[in-house]
Description:
This protein has 503 residues and is α/β, with parallel strands linked by helices. It has helices at residues 48-65, 108-116, 128-136, 145-155, 159-164, 173-181, 191-194, 209-215, 237-240, 252-259, 317-327, 334-343, 381-405, 423-433, 445-457, 464-470, 483-502; strands at residues 4-10, 14-21, 26-33, 45-46, 73-80, 86-89, 99-100, 168-171, 188-190, 200-201, 206-207, 224-226, 246-251, 268-272, 276-283, 294-301, 304-313, 351-353, 371-373, 412-416, 436-440, 473-477.
Amino acid sequence: MTEYILALDQGTSSSRAIVYTTQGEVVARAQQDFEMSFPSDGWVEQNPEVLWETTLQSARRALVAGDISAQNVKALGITNQRETTLVWDRMTGECLYNAIVWQDRRTAQRCNEMAANHSQLDGLSQTIAELIAAQTGLLIDPYFSSTKLAWILENVAGAADRARAGELCFGTVDTFLIWRLTGGTKHLTDATNASRTQLFDIHQQRWCPELLNYYDIDPSLLPEVKDCAGDFGVTTENLLGAAIPITGVAGDQQAALVGQACFEPGQAKSTYGTGCFVISNTGSEPVRSAQQLLSTVAYRLGGEVTYGLEGSIFVAGAAIKWLRDQLGLIRDTQDTSDAFQATGGDTGGVFVVPAFTGLGAPHWQPDARGLITGLTLDTSREQIVTAFLQAVVFQTEELLQAMSKDGATISRLRVDGGMAVNDELCQFLADLLDVVVERPKDVETTARGAAILAALGAGIFPDINQVAVMWACEKEFVPTMADADRARLVRGYSQAVASAVQG
Length: 503
């Protein structure tokens, strides 16, 4: 009897499920896209019931597509969009408010005030910015869950009182899915997702009491934090047809790091989905960045923490989707490849800064807005499309330069995500970054990472060494660009970014 692993990948714009054999082969998959809502400038929300239903339906459809009985699924792994914040009723499971998405900027003013406050906290010799950086490895920005949660407690009628009475649960998307999958019996998260809330001490591996006090968050709201591989409960039988053990959980970017088998310090991956996220494995010690990068938990296995240095780009694939849906300049993603080939990568001096929701690392400018610069009467549609594609690469170059200054020099970069199937993008990455770019056979490494963690948690894989030898490169891209051309392009994009920030 063949045994299987089911991976649930709940992302920013879609929910998907992939079924693997215990040898890591893909058997079946299903995916459902959904829309977000934008109630106000800078606000980004999702319907929690849509997140749940699309995830559940994707799982069911994947099992049907593979003609697989749920009784033969030995482990289930979850990976998810990080930082997105939900609060629900502990008895009914109903959310008090829409999910506030990681891209949401509604707390930008509060974050600006926090960053500008240089007063020491009561009883401490630190400012709030210093405390956050020292304990969580993060920076003050609306990106993280803390101010989103505080906003819900302050703005939803009765929420604060109900939280203090122990009636509510907070969670990122993984916690919400675990709660629903287990019939409300498990309020859990893993160390990677906890590390993105801005409430978790990544050194002590516990919720930070000083930050909970600062944000006036009752500890009863928070889930228990577990290793990435282990016992997260079992699904209720009526959902998928059998009680399936949930044995692996990680935030999407950390799951991709696992899926890319970046288990040695210095190994790095870059994922190109809605946003773009570069993580470099830094080993057993976190790196305190001097370049406004993030120290985060890469994964925690057997109680041992491996840390990562991360750069977060808020808009990557989202910009290509905008080109298609808002401007109608492309019909599908293949058009971006065709445009790049038509121009030979020459945009005629056009640069795009896709700061639709502000700029992430290393700038952290939530009020920045996107721009297109260098337009002339000769500029073609293909050049604009190419400039949008190249913008993702320019942002990645900024991150790798910052990582290098922090001592995390990268010579080989493993790429994944939907955009990584584009050969032109990968070659331009290699050229502009002046590194070897490796694309794996399976670019859906986020789901694969969740499956790997589930297999580890279920004892199907003995350790990560077995995972490392399973990773396979599909294509390698070697840099060929002249140094002078690289310097000219980087300089042009830097000038464009300066205009976006100043504007």
